[in-house]
Amino acid sequence: MSFIYPLIRRFFFSLDAEKAHMLGLKAIRLLHSLKLSRLVFGAPVSAPKTVMGLTFPNSVGLAAGLDKNGDYIDGLSAVGFGFIEIGTVTPRPQPGNPQPRLFRIPQAQAIVNRMGFNNKGVMHLVEQVKKANSKTIIGINIGKNFDTPVESAADDYKKCLQQVYALADYVAINISSPNTPGLRSLQFGDELKHLLEVLKTEQKLLAEECNKYVPLAVKIAPDMEDNDIKLIAELLLEKEIDAVIATNTTISRQAVQGLEHADEQGGLSGVPVFEQSTHVVHLLAEHLNGQLPIIAAGGIFSAQDAQDKIAAGAELVQIYTGFIYQGQKLIKDCAQALK
User: Fold this and answer.
1) Is 177 a catalytic residue?
2) Given 33, 41, 140, 288, which residue has the most CB atoms within 10 angstroms?
3) Which has the closest alpha carbon to 144: 185, 99, 84?
């Protein structure tokens, strides 16, 4: 598969980015339904790792955003990921931002997106998870609707948590997408404190009701000052959050200046965010001092990149843009390197 992926990518890159995204997911689902996944992708790397009390088949996960609605869980699990994070999902369905809203920057091995949490709503995702046959670890990434005021955001997250709790292996709280107005303000001060208090209280109630403990992970942005990262780390420990995901996409364009689509609004992912994101992982590791696990995402394009994230202090890694550019071989190479 690896030697023909450049040809497959050339075909997909000749299409509109969002159309190619959907076509690729449908192809993965078709391969699975025809029972061809093992033939095409080979056997997943087995290298179990226990984090957040969960045993992951290997340390390489799919970052949120590829399968927003949980429509492709079984197909994606057969690709070789050790875990899959679906979403971001919101309480109510929403169309997201107007198209076009997804742009490639091939010279920088990057993508800009301003999707805007386009999804079919939490109840659709719940039904899809119920139907999935995969035994893969599933994280569910939750957010707020675009028209929910920031001061009411905790209500949206709570509604989502209530719906997905019984089905999720862990729940990721997305407060770092740059494409929903006001969302990133939830990463700071009293707003973050209030949100975490609401969700931890609800987690305790749901744990008793469902007779199982589902960990909460908070996903943060790479565009924060070093002192803000320290304050977030302290608050995550104080509120007994179970993990932190570092990081989401960046609003910086420093690494892609002058390239086509570099000026498009949205979050930048891929190679240009690697160093910035790894810096956040390193600082978090310093401040958390092993008391809370870090899941690293951002610019992983090689096995060495994955190893560098672990060396910076992460326990697990997630891939998205690297998978688009490098194909399934990247997952296998990274999982093998992290054995």
Assistant:
1) yes
2) 140
3) 185
Is the pLDDT at 1 greater than 90? The verdict is no
Give yes or no for residue 159 having a pLDDT over 80: yes
What is the amino acid identity at position 2? S
> Comparing C-alpha atoms, which of 36, 201, 168 is closest to residue 28?
36
Task: Give the angle subtended at the CA of 303 by the CAs of 302 and 309, to the nearest 5°.
Answer: 95
Q: Tell me the C-alpha distance between 47 and 36, whole Å.
A: 23
Report field, pTM of the whole predicted structure over 0.90: yes
Q: Which long-range contacts (CB under 8 A, 24 or more apart) does 9-16 make?
A: 9/324, 9/325, 9/327, 13/104, 13/106, 16/100
- Assign domain 5-100+116-244+274-337 to a CATH class: alpha beta
Write down the domain spans for the chain.
5-100+116-244+274-337
- Within 10 angstroms of residue 243's Cβ, the number of other Cβ atoms is 24
Out of 37, 59, 177, 269, pick the active-site residue: 177
* Per-residue pLDDT tens digits for 210-224: 999 999 999 999 999
Angle at which helices 153-164 and 189-210 pack, to 10 degrees? 20
Q: Which residue has the tokens 């690697």?
A: 274
Tell me the pLDDT band of 3, cut-offs 50, 70 and 90. Answer: confident
Surface-to-core class of residue 256, CB atoms within 10 Å of its CB (0-12 exposed, 13-18 middle, 19+ buried): buried
Q: Name the residue among 21, 210, 218, 214 with its Cα closest to residue 111.
A: 21
16 pLDDT higher than 70: yes
Cα separation, 5 vs 145, in Å, equals 37
Mean pLDDT of the chain: 97
